[in-house]
Design a protein that fits this description.
The chain is an all-alpha fold. It has helices spanning 2-13, 17-24, 27-84, 122-131. The longest helix is centred in the middle third of the chain and has 58 residues, at 27-84.
């Protein structure tokens, strides 16, 4: 126990870390470290610039082309379905569990991102169901 206390006292008395080294270090050491940090920053900046240009930009282009091809196929499929049904899309079955709204959103019955070409218009559906 006494030995442990002595070891702790010696450990507390010895200066730690940067205080001891900064007192001994001269001005030349500071400028050398600063230049090393600047050189490292320049190398890392160049690395990430190359990664951006040679990896990220081509990956973005490839993804954009893939999405374009998928969307073109989807549009062709929609046109095929329209051609089979005299130029109109067939009506979607009105299942009772789909598109249920117990109470309207603050902006109305449709979602915030409502698109009349893709989504079912729930306002029109409510008016039709009230009239029946």
């Amino acid at each position: 126990m006494l030995a442990r206390t002595a070891v702790r006292a010696v450990a507390r008395a010895t200066p730690r870390g940067s205080r001891a080294s900064s007192a001994d270090a001269g001005a030349g050491d500071y400028f050398a470290k600063r230049d090393a940090v600047r050189a490292h920053a320049a190398e890392v900046t160049q690395l990430w610039r190359r990664i951006s240009f040679y990896v990220c930009v081509p990956a973005t282009i490839v993804c954009a082309l893939w999405v374009r091809n998928v969307e073109v196929e989807h549009a062709e499929h929609i046109e095929h379905i329209k051609a089979e049904h005299d130029g109109h899309l067939p009506d979607i079955p009105q299942y009772e569990y789909m598109n249920r709204r117990v109470k309207p959103y603050p902006w109305g019955m449709n979602s915030l991102f409502f698109n009349p070409h893709v989504n079912k218009d729930l306002v029109r559906g409510m008016i039709l169901s009230r009239n029946q």
